Amino acid sequence: MTPTAPSRTPASPVRPERPPRPASLAELREVIGRESERLTPRLRAAARYALDHPNEVALNPVATLAKTSKVAAATFIRLAQFLGCEGYSDLQRLFREPLQHAGKPSFPQRIRHFGGEQTLDHPDDPAQVLQAFSQANMVSLEHLRADATSLPLQAAIDLIEQAPLVHVVGLRRSYAVAAYLAYALNRVGCPTVQINGLGGSIHEQASIAGAGHLLIAVSFPPYAADTLQVCQQLSRRGVKRLALTNSILSPIAQGADLVLEVNDAELLGFRSLCAAMSLAQTLAMGVAFSKRSKQRMGAAETFETILEDIDC
């Protein structure tokens, strides 16, 4: 008698495990960055809005947040669950925690809360425009100073210093930052090429990059399409990427080896570049000091004497 084979129950589909609940807002940001490629476009929009408007998430019910963000309330709830929270209220507690350790929101915090925008009563008055721009720039630098210890600056400096050749791309409003960074890195002895697309040759300029090289991509909303295309082109060639951008959900941050977030204030569509330029200067100075201090190892020299001939 032939034995009867045991019946098999069809296997149920395996669902991806939900990550453990983040213990803080900083951990939540790390989870979003780590899981960003798995986010659907709607979840990505909700995550981007939450990171850009933390006070709105902390202080408003999900229905109000959905109205102001134009993202469905159900999407924020799904995002919360995707990130390891029980629901929107659980997610909201992570955003509320920093506010419990702070005083009344200051004017600079309100500017940041509204995306760095500032209202002008008389935009035809040059003096008021200058005052508003000056205020927006101070806000940008205040936030950069507050975020400095959380930025992976040393890791970025190491990436730059270890690359045999650095390529820098930044177009449209980011062009000035990219041009300065390429100039400064060359001045401190780091071989650097700027990809500027002159004559429509951006892809040809990028094609000289090879495996082991480093691409520094600089882009802010609205992101330049050519910058994103260069990132994709060089990723396929095995080129490492350091992204200077406004968010870990920025398109140039996707697939990057390292991301430096910098949020400049914005005034009537004009984005301040003060914070981004300060970050570029920090990277160049960090590379300069690292290279020269290694060359003069053991010499009793001060920071000033090591960098005395730098005029960046």
Q: How would you summarize this macromolecular structure in one to three sentences?
A:
The chain is 49% helix and 9% strand. The chain is of the alpha/beta class and 312 residues long.
What is the 3D shape? globular
Residue share in helices?
A: 40-55%
The oligomerization state is single chain
Strand order of the largest sheet: 2-1-3-4-5
How many strand units?
A: 7
Q: Determine the structural class based on helices, strands and strand pairing.
A: alpha/beta
**Intertermini distance:** 90 Å
Low-confidence stretches: 11-15, 103-114
Sheet with the most strands, sense and barrel status: 5 strands, parallel
Strand content: 5-15%
CATH topology value of the largest domain: Rossmann fold
User: Over the alpha carbons, how many angstroms does the gyration radius reach?
Assistant: 23 Å
> Can you tell me the number of structural domains?
2
Write down the overall mean pLDDT.
Answer: 84
Count of alpha/pi helices: 14
> What CATH architecture label of the largest domain applies?
3-Layer(aba) Sandwich
The CATH superfamily of the largest domain bears the name Glucose-6-phosphate isomerase like protein, domain 1
The top level CATH class name of the largest domain:
Alpha Beta
Q: What pattern of helices and strands is seen along the backbone? A: HHHHHHHHHEHEHEHEEEEHH
